[in-house]
Write a structure and sequence with these properties.
Length: 487
């Protein structure tokens, strides 16, 4: 398995440094796929529990008594549930008096307030990369800085991910995996039409021309399926905004100012309008993440925009598409020579601030239990082997919780390289990826506003694109950005 090289890791870190104020966003339209729990194996150097006295080294883990509820994968994630069950069993061998309760709640930004208010949120729950600032400011994520500082492997965590939950120098989340949004392409669908497969260093024109060559509306076949329902639509479109050189917002004079109704924003929306006019998107364009990825796996569209691992997993293991016919592309550059900028995001675990100190400690230890361990490698390898027995493929995330060039990263890479059912990301792809974090403030509300605009473009003819952008920016500015004071 070819992981992120040191060069691309540096590029991603550089993109993060350039991001406005180094802050994080307050919600997300989608992840690369529905957030998933990390599942490797036990940390053999689990430190002692943090009692209410604050002394994290005074209590034997075998004496810690607590009950924690944890994020548990959805029923469709059979392999991940099996891994989580094994992890719970091993965790209880180290922490025999900690009861681990499986929670079926999947993070939803529209539900977290209700869950917190009713004290029903799990002790350890999953969330998106964009939620750091939002959860921290609302008091819905525990400040785990002390737990982080006492973690002996903290220096090996991937800063590309960790930085997104570093709010004003305090840590509020535990990284699991990350992604840079790209485009997954069905090579066979293109070749079956006698069309030329575009180069990885592609442009918007290449996307449009490829989509035109493949689309067959009479048979329900689309060339590309941009998401058009839910906040995923705004999330998909933001990649094109970034590629055109645009920004979502800026901080000017202590105020947050909408910037997406710029010339770059208009250029990106014009491209979406071209896709619609060219009849290359699905007739039923109102697709959320699952709809669009499902259409791709079923061969009803040749291209889909997402974090690569989700479409790859469904295409390989549900759609039966051969790995040689699935290509991962970076997002296309607006013009030749431009950057292939994609939204940088990821999955995190957050500790409930309403939990006791011992419960928070136990939750943190559970979250990192498998990190950097030999048992973790064994668990990964067992997962790959189980998938191979079932004639299924293992698709790693592009960005892992650990540094890619670390000693542990090399060990993971060596495991991947032993098997032919591990999907291989190309070195050329890694060299082209350019990750850009999302907005610092009110990402969810911005996505929702842009989703309304995109639905106008996809459903109507002769839409005044600039007017639509200006109206969306005005709405986001007055309802949300104007309420923010930046110190």
């Amino acid at each position: 398995m070819r992981k992120l090289t040191t060069a691309i890791a540096c590029l991603l870190v550089f993109s993060l440094v350039l991001a406005a104020c180094g802050g994080k966003n307050n919600s997300n339209g989608s992840s690369s796929q529905p957030p998933s729990s990390a599942s490797n194996s036990p940390s053999e150097s689990a430190s002692a529990p943090a009692s209410d006295t604050g002394d994290s080294s005074a209590v034997d883990p075998t004496q810690l008594k607590a009950t924690i509820s944890i994020y548990y994968p959805t029923p469709d994630q059979i392999e991940k549930r099996a891994l989580e069950d094994d992890k719970i069993k091993r965790f209880n061998q180290v922490f025999p008096n900690v009861e681990v309760v499986k929670s079926d709640w999947q993070y939803n930004p529209n539900e977290i307030g209700i869950k917190m208010g009713a004290n029903e949120a799990p002790t350890l729950f999953n969330t998106y990369a964009t939620e750091g600032k939002f959860l921290a400011e609302k008091g819905w994520a525990a400040d785990i800085t002390d737990l982080y500082n006492s973690y002996d492997k903290k220096d090996q965590l991937n800063p590309i991910l960790l930085d997104q939950f570093n709010i004003d120098g305090k840590i509020y989340g535990i990284p699991q995996q990350g992604y840079v949004v790209g485009t997954v392409v069905n090579k066979k669908m293109i070749e079956d039409k006698g069309a030329t497969v575009p180069p990885l260093n592609w442009t918007w024109d290449d996307v449009l021309n490829t989509a035109k060559a493949v689309a067959d509306p009479s048979k329900g076949i689309a060339g590309i399926a941009p998401m058009g329902k839910g906040n995923e639509a705004g999330w998909n479109w933001t990649n094109f905004l970034f590629e055109a050189g645009g920004e979502i917002q800026a901080i000017e004079g202590g105020k947050v100012v909408a910037k997406f109704n710029s010339d770059a924003g208009l250029k990106a929306l014009e491209f979406y309008s071209k896709l619609k006019e060219s009849n290359v998107i699905p007739a039923d364009w109102a697709l959320g993440w699952g709809d669009a990825v499902g259409a791709f796996a079923q061969g009803r569209t040749a291209m889909v925009i997402a974090g690569p691992d989700g479409p790859l997993d469904q295409g390989l293991n549900q759609g039966g598409i051969k790995p040689e016919n699935l290509l991962v592309y970076p997002m296309p550059a607006a013009t030749s020579g431009g950057k292939h900028t994609g939204v940088l995001g990821g999955d995190f675990l957050v500790v409930n601030p309403n939990a006791s100190k011992d419960e928070q400690y136990a939750a943190f230890q559970y979250a990192v239990f498998d990190y950097f361990s030999d048992k973790g490698l064994e668990s990964i390898e067992a997962n790959i082997q189980d998938r191979k027995k079932d004639n299924k493929y293992f698709v790693p995330p592009i960005i892992q919780y650990f540094k890619q060039d670390s000693e542990y990263g090399e060990k993971v890479k060596a495991v991947y390289n032993k098997y032919d059912n591990v999907y291989q990301y190309s070195d050329e792809l890694m060299g082209l990826l350019d990750g850009k974090p999302e907005a610092q403030f009110n990402t969810q509300d911005y996505y929702a506003a842009m989703t309304n605009v995109i639905q106008e473009v996809f459903s109507k003819k002769s839409v005044n694109l600039k007017a639509q952008l200006d109206e969306a920016a005005k709405t986001v500015q007055s309802k949300f950005f104007d309420q923010i004071k930046v110190e």
